[in-house]
């Protein structure tokens, strides 16, 4: 039985608590949030789950094996590192961290302590996405990627904060694309000589910079 603690009961935390509670082999032990009203909701929905306004209580609790962190991205690194140093396996909402340097530090810490660090790219476990990945690997489906600059999209800019929902969606879609392990192609359009017996998956990516 995996005993979970959840830090953050705002936008996505309720989904995590519900799914962990309903998954066999898992149980939710505690939930931490800074808002006492949200903790009251937890207590009403899950009477057996302990609540606290101190995330440290979860890290100090020896009855908790892993923690899920569903807080604003600017707190991911600090909370994730604290959890790893406390000997907890860590489930982090996407995006993992604000910078690739922070992400690498978390990965190194998890490897050093032989702990699991996972990002919530749940779509890659769905049947439809895994089927798509198998089709790409088999050559029956070809992946085309087109990139367009952010300035060409109304309301988008390079200065978009990491807290934006667009960043969350972009990292999720990228994880799906990488699952296919396909041969990348960047044509301006579909060539007329392209084999007509193959289906084409055309994905539009915008304002994404990879480090």
Description:
The chain is an alpha/beta fold and 211 residues long. It has two domains: 2-120, NAD(P)-binding Rossmann-like Domain (Rossmann fold), CATH 3.40.50.720; 123-206, no CATH class. It is built from seven helices and eight strands. The protein has helices at 13-22, 36-45, 55-60, 76-85, 100-113, 127-138, 165-179; strands at residues 2-7, 26-32, 50-52, 66-69, 89-92, 117-119, 141-148, 199-206. It has a six-stranded parallel beta sheet, with helices on both faces. A two-stranded parallel ribbon has the order 7-8. Strand 4 (66-69), helix 4 and strand 5 form a beta-alpha-beta unit. The longest helix has 15 residues, at 165-179. The two termini are 38 Å apart. Mean pLDDT is 77; it is low at 150-160 and 182-211.
Strand order of the largest sheet: 3-2-1-4-5-6
Radius of gyration: 20 Å
Tell me the fraction of residues in β-strands, as a range: 15-25%
Query: Uncertain segments of ≥5 residues (pLDDT<50)?
Result: 150-160, 182-211
Please estimate the helix content: 25-40%
Number of domains: 2
Largest sheet: 6 strands, parallel
SSE-based structural type? alpha/beta
Q: Average pLDDT, to the nearest integer?
A: 77
CATH topology of the largest domain: Rossmann fold
**What's the name of the CATH homologous superfamily of the largest domain?**
NAD(P)-binding Rossmann-like Domain
Task: Please state the overall shape, judged from the principal axes of the Cα atoms.
Answer: globular
- Which CATH C-level class of the largest domain is it? Alpha Beta
What is the succession of H and E elements? EHEHEHEHEHEHEHE
Distance between the termini: 38 Å
CATH architecture of the largest domain: 3-Layer(aba) Sandwich
Question: How many strand segments?
Answer: 8
Number of helices: 7
